[in-house]
Fold:
Amino acid sequence: MKSPTQAKPMDGVAVERNAIPPLSVETPNVDQPRYTQKETLLTMLGVLLVMLLASLDQTIVSTAMPRIISELQGFDRYTWVTTAYMLTSTVMVPIYGKLSDLFGRKSIFLIGVSIFLFGSALSGAAQTMNQLIAFRALQGLGAAALLPIAIAVVGDLFTPRERGKWQGVTTAVFGLSSILGPAVGGWITENTTWRWVFYVNLPIGLIALGVLIFLMPTLHRKVAKTKIDYIGAVLLVLGTVPMLLGFTWAGGDLPWLSAQIIGLFGFSLVALVGFFVYEMRLAHRGEQPIIDPRLFKNSIFSISILVTMITNMGMFGSIFFLPLFAQGVMGVSATNSGLLLSPMMIALMISSIISGQLISRFGKYKWVAIVGLLITIAGMYLLYRLNVHSVNLDLSIAMIAVGLGLGFGMSTYTIAVQNVMPDKIGESTSALTFFRSIGSTVALAAMGSLMSSAYVPAFHNALPASLKQMLPAKLISALDNPNILLSPDAQKQLLQQFSKYGPQGKVIYNQLIEAVKVGLTQGIHNVFILSLVLMVIGLVAALFLKEVPLRGSRSRKKTQDVDDFTTDIESVSPSMLH
Structure:
């Protein structure tokens, strides 16, 4: 009996005939389809408007949330406004990505933008907190299509080598939104009604919608089978939503080892295992799974997923907890904290544009990824060195270093993956976005628990022994939460109480506040240490990233020159040689 014939090994994995059909990851010798300059530029205008719209939404809304919960009387459901949006926008990302590969970017993109704008209008008109939560979930359903498909459109319009400079520009949009969002949200909240933080999406979105409808090319590749994977979609939802809820509630609303959290994680595990088993079965039959398991056999895809998840988790350690450190330890006012991250985001914008230009110029991406991680590690180390005596300059230098490093790496892995999977651009790009979002949620829960668990013992250790004996235990336990550092009114009331005892009372008050600052600093230090460790792990993983030269205009020009030379030689008649 003949032994089964083996297909070409793919990243060290031999694929047998009659097994799962191999997924081609060979780099084609031809460039991506070309479009007219007018089509390209106008489509990119629409894409950038959509990306700005989606990224601005989060920063604007978060600024207005205190006013919203005050008017709608929904403090007890405060987090659900964000949680509902996060759940729907995360779980739908790979589904939209696959659908855009099957039915074309334009149609799915337009559906996503339309749903997002409809959800924005309804959110602005919400009369109760429950309505707002429901409409934000609907808005998230549309938002899930915006960012990953926008990045995939860049992959369709440009060759891999040309994508670098455009991916750098799209990354810069996120930095711009982080700077504009708090300022715009604050101005809207102070000068108009909070409802305009949602209505402001409509004019920008309608302009983008018009550009995309009338000027964007179809960007549709022909696919033999277009059967939608409904069962896979249901299993993905059933696996992802409980996991995200578990990480959101664990350590805060519910203990990590509570029956509810364990039940959510257990249910999620069963559903996700079922999802990947079913997707493997579809791949075996040659159908179209939402996330093709064969993608992970490609080392560039797998390492890119790993590095983006790890670095995104580390990034959250700096972005989410820096305002807490600045307000709580350094005493920066809440008003000024809205612009606190500006140095980091400006540096991110600059470095993302520069790195994109370098990738396009040299056609190499691995060295850019490694340099970015090295700079980020240096920045994380500077964050770790911050203490209760640090000044604004220390914080700004550390943030600039982190921003420069993150900007170098944010779009690099998308370019690398799209380069080796030209026929799976939507699916692979959305998978990167999906796993990046999962990493963010996991990091937020883990780092929040880490900070809280480190704060209490550090606070008690920083208290002088004389104060522990002098002050009632009830007062000390009330400071087991560092919220007093974020409330000037609470600090003023506590100072007034201690001032009754004269100068000695003020000394005791200052010692208490100093101990709280020391405890909070230690808790955030632990977060920065974890972020630093994650970045180092990401650097080690990036060293194994394969370098596949980017296809693009430079190589195409060389090929054209060779063809022209060959044609000229063939046109020479023998008589001309004598």
Confidence is low (pLDDT under 50) at residues 1-21, 24-33, 554-578.
